[in-house]
Amino acid sequence: MTVLNGQIMRAIIAIVILFLAVELVLMIGYEMSMGHKAASLILKPNVPTPILPDGPVQECPTYHHLPASAYQNYAVLDPSELPYLEDDLPVLKLSGISPFINSSTEYKGSKVICPKWEAYDKRVQMKKDFEGNCHPVKIESQDFKVDLCQSELLCGQGYFKIERLDKDICKKDMEKELSWNKQVERYLKEKIGPDAFHIQFEGPERAAFSMWSHLGNCVYKFPFRLINPGNYTVNIMHAYKSFDAVNELKEDWSKPLMANLITKYPMEVCPHCPVYTDAIVQQMHHLPLCSRDEPTQGVFLRMTMETEREKYKFDNYKHPYIYAPLGCRFDQTFELHGNDTCMSNFTTHLLINGDSQSRIVWDLLDARLAGHKESIQANEKLGNRDTLYFSTNDLKNFTQVKNRFLLKDDDEEPKKKAKDVNSGKVVPVSDPRRKLHRLHSKYVGFETHLYSHINPIREWDDEKKVTSGDKFYSNYDAVLVNAGHWPASGLWAGGHFSIERYVDLIEYASDFMLVLNSRRHIFGKGPINYVWEGVNAFKIDDNVEGFAAKGADWRINYRLKIYSDFAERVFRRRGIKQMNSFDITLPWSQDSPDGAHLYTLPALDAQVDELLHKWNLCRV
User: Fold this and answer.
1) Which residue ranges does UniProt annotate as crossing the membrane (predicted)?
2) pLDDT tens digits, residue range 588-608?
3) What fold characterizes domain 288-381+441-615?
4) Which pLDDT value is given to residue 319?
5) Contact at 8 Å (CB) between 567 and 534?
6) Which of the two ends of the chain, N or C, has the fewest CB atoms closer than 10 A to its terminal CB?
7) Coil, helix or strand for 69?
C-alpha cells in the first residue's frame, strides 16, 4: 500500500512539473509574441476603419454638416492588415482617426451630369478611373508623356496622367535613401514618387488641385474636378526631379527645374452646362451653413462684375476672380460693416498667434472688422496690432470717431491703415467707449508661440497655481494658431523639420492647447475657440539669389502638403477647428509678390472669410 501511495505521489508530481513546464513555454512564447507586436506597434499603431452611416452613398456627400459623433466611432484593425490610412499618409506613431467625410461611389448612368455646386470627397476623386476615355497630349519635353483622361458621364471631372519614359532613371531614383524614418521613406516612394509637378487651370474658375499620387514606376495621376463650365487653359510645370521636393536627408537647397511640359493647353469643359457666377451663388439662400469645424472646400470664380463686392475686390487685387465656398455658405464675413450688430451684443477678445503668414491674416482681418474696402498691398512687418472695434451704431454719440482704434501708442511704427483711427495716443482707461461691447483683436508672434517658447509652460505662479501660459491665453476667447512655414525654413532659422519631427511639433502644440482649455475654469471662463490656420502653399522660384536659395530653404509644396495633411489628421483627432489654407493658396502661390506671402491676392480674402465663419463671433 505504501509503495502504491508512493507511485501515485510521484505520478502527481510528474504531472504538476509537466503542467508548469507547458505553462512556462506558453508564457515565453506569449511574451515573445507580445514583444514583437509591441515593437511593431511603435511604427504601425492601430489604424481605424470608419463606421459610415447606413443607407445609399451619394456621389456628392454631406461634407459640411456631419455630426460630431461621426468622428468618434470607429473600429480598430490590426496594423498589419492596413499599411496606410484612408488618406494614404504613412502611419508613424499616431493613433487612428476617422475620415473627415463620408465615402462615395462613381456615378452610374448614361446621362451626362453637369457640375453641381457641391463639395466632394477628394479621396474618392483620386480613385476614379476614366481609362476608357484617354488621349495623348502634345508636350514640350522628350522625358515624359502626358495623357488626358476625362469622364464621359461626369462633366468637368478627369485627370492628367504623366509618365517618365526613361525607366532606368526612375529605378535609380527609387533606390535613393530619403529619410531616417523608413515608414516615411516607403510613403514617399510609393505615394509621392521622384518627380514633382505644378498644374494650373485658368478660365471660368482658377484652380490648382492638391490631388496627386504616384501609381508606381514613375507614373503620376493628377485628378481635377472643375465646377464652372467654359473654356480653360492648362499649364503643367515639371518642378522637381529625383525626390528633390521631399528628400529629408538633403540639407542644401533644391533648385526647381521649372520646365514647362504644357503651356496654355486649351480645354473645353461642359459647354452645354449652366455657368456659376458670384451673383448666382449669392442668391443660393437654400445652401446649408458651412462647417464651423472642418476645412471648407471653395472655388475662385471668374468675375462678371454683377455684384458690388466683385467690383471693389477687383479694384483691390486686379485679378478677375472671387472666392466662394462650395456647396455651403458663410454667414459672418463682416464685409463693409455687414455684421456690425454682433459687436454690440458681446465683447470678444481675438488672438492671432503665429508667424508672418498669420500676421498677414491679421492685417486683412483688421481691415474687414473696421469695414474697409481696401486690401493689403504691402507686407507690413512693423506696427502695433492690438485694436478695438465697435459697431458704428454704438458710436453715434461719439462724434468724429470711427469704429476702430488702437490700444497702444503707434507713432514709432505707423500702420498704413491708421488714417481713420485716432492713433498715436494711448486710449485711457476712462474712455467711455471701453464700457461698450466690442471686438478686440491682437497679433503676437513667436515670442509667445505655442511651439517655440517654453516659458508659457515652465513659469509657475505659486500663488494663483497657474502657468504664465494659462494667464496669457486667459485673456482671449478665440485664437487662430499656425506653425507657418518656419519648420520648412533653412537650418539657420531652425527649420528642416522632417515629417516625423513636424508631427511631433503639432502633437505637442495641440496637446498644449487642450491643456490650456482644461484649466480655463480657474479663470471662470469657457474653452478657447481655437482655429488651426493650416499650411500655405509656397512659390516655386529658381532664383539662385533669392532668400530661399541663400537660406537652403525646404519650403516646397509637396513637402508642405504632407505637413498639411498630417496636421489635418492631428487637429481633427483633438477636435480643433481647421481652415483649408493649402487648397486656398495653391492656385495663387506663383503670384506671391514677395515669394512667400499672399497679401495682394484673392486667397487672403478667402482665408479671412473662412476664419470669421469658423470663429462664429455672432454666436449663432
Assistant:
1) 12-30
2) 999 999 999 999 999 999 999
3) Rossmann fold (3.40.50)
4) 96
5) yes
6) N
7) helix
